[in-house]
User: What shape does this take?
Amino acid sequence: QVQLVESGGGLVQAGGSLRLSCVASGSFRSINAMGWYRQAIGKQRELVATSTSGGSTNYADPVKGRFTISRDNAKNTVYLQMNSLKPDDTAVYYCNAAVRTWAWDIINSWGQGTQVTVSS
Assistant: This one.
């Protein structure tokens, strides 16, 4: 069992910043990739940023240069620093992790989501 718990969402004015955190807990062998996705009302869930266990990162074009993903592998935690926020960034942000079980399977796990609202 793996649990992902996000925090740090909220309401911010355009141009402001927020930092999201996601902690993975439970019993597992290791965590491979971790990342953030978002889903706005009426839209499909989309990739925001991902980070491999080795530190390689990938960003969606709309957030490049504004968002930064980072990890603390010792704490099984991934962060998303969001700067220069825009109203279009308003969405529920979900943490995702590819977790390797003790049986060497890979489980794709999701958090419950945290709301980010950017006012104009």
